[in-house]
Amino acid sequence: MGENVNTLSERNHIGRPNFAAEIGIDSPERRDALARIAGSIEQQSLEVIRVGFVDTNGIVRVRPIEARHFLQAAANGVPFTTALLAMDSGNFIVQNVFAADGGFGRASMGGAGDMLAMPDPATFQILPWAERTGFILSDLYLKDGERCPLDPRKLMQDACARLAERGYAFVAGIEIEAHVFTVTDPKTALRDCTQPSTPPAVEALRHGFQHLSDTAVDGLDGMLSALRKAIRGVGLPLRTLEVEWGPGQIEITLDPIVGTAAADAAVMLRSTIKQTCQRLGLLASFMARPGLPNVFSCGWHLHQSLSAIDDETNRFASPDDVLSPTGRYFVGGLLHHARAGTAFTNPTINGYKRLNGTPLSPKRATWSVDNKGAMLRVMGGAGDASVHIENRIGDPAANPYLYMASQILAGLDGMARQQLPGEPSPNPYDVSDAERLPATLSEAINATSASSFFRSAFGDEYINHFVALKRHEIGRYEAYVTDWEHKEYFELV
Questions:
Q1: Domain hosting residue 59, numbered range
Q2: What b/e readout covers 390-410, taking b as 16+ CB neighbours within 10 angstroms?
Q3: pLDDT for 357-405, tens place per residue?
Q4: CATH number, domain containing residue 407
Q5: How far is the C-alpha of 56 from the C-alpha of 469, rounded, in Å?
Q6: pTM metric for this prediction
Q7: Cα-Cα-Cα-Cα dihedral sign, residues 337, 264, 137, 123
Q8: CATH number of the domain within which 104 lies
Q9: Cα–Cα distance between 461 and 230 in angstroms, integer?
Q10: I need a labelling partner for 471 at 20 to 30 A (CA). Which of 4, 53, 85, 343 fits?
């Protein structure tokens, strides 16, 4: 026939051939790192590699590929439909993804076509709970070669790059709470496979309200030991794993981690806990306030500071003050942008039922020195090289990249404008002139949408995308007839 037809092997590829070279990331360092991963794959006889990315909702989306194709996938990228970025927290598609621009306003994202996930070698881990399985996080690129502007990991990387331009690195300590329950009925009958599905029926592993009791810790030792082994097994720097206040409530803290790796670690930590528990017949939930009797609220306290890139010294430390001027300006920025930033620290409807439903959660944009009633708590003091700021309002379900990036950018703005926060409050609950935090997700989203600062910092394109997803989620919630309404009105009127 005279036609030059490629061989079958040449046509059997993942992604776009040599896409890494096309977009300029095919460096010798990356190739060396990938070669080391390939060696581990062979040595450990891995069969599957889960290639994943994190969407705006904080959900990890993965495609499991055969391990023998890993190097090809790393060079070519792994395709994911752009429709994944048009899904809200319930996986409902919020826009016309089959339009020429996919509803994103970009031809390169049209028709629910593919974007390419480029694996980051620094994030590769072997999953100790899954048979012969590896996992790696990726950066998203569009088919025209541009970095996907809706990739939350990109926003975190950009924020860290802005810090680096000023000679700083972001240092984060993760302190996050969760619930672990025994599943008594998984609710997998077809009638329960709704969208979202009926939650499993659960019961507590043991009674609660024995905070840090040695008896409670020993009673949960089997579960805690399994989690501890898994967390260490994926290379996370576990600091503590302990029993919290409520039934089934635990708290996990990690050693400080620098830059984007801190957000990557938070992603890995949540997946590790949920998947390990799932295989034990347990359910781990990072929901802030589950609708279960006698269950306590959970939070995510983010510890943060800045270190100098050149000598790694803590730039918040001062020999004669609780915080250096840099630290005070950073606090000033966080407080100044607190209302608009709350949608990133608390992105779920349920999260505001924690903030408003318990007196232990801060209600105003305040700061203090070692007082847990404030939104921002300074830990340490004059002459303390480890002094840092703890943000206490976070929702455990928050997207780690957006949570941390929003803190970095707000703090940077405070530094640029030398925004002083005023004096720390010794009685945060008594402060009545500080700005109130949003009482609902709807109020928080409106503040974010109206924020010229976050529109400049994250870009209009991302803010519009984020706001649209969240408003769709809010709209579904507001259209749902609750038990409260039925009890209040059904018989009465």
A1: 8-148
A2: bbbbbbbbbbbbbbbbbbbbb
A3: 777 788 999 999 999 999 999 999 899 999 999 999 999 999 999 999 9
A4: 3.30.590.10
A5: 9
A6: 0.96
A7: positive
A8: 3.10.20.70
A9: 38
A10: 53
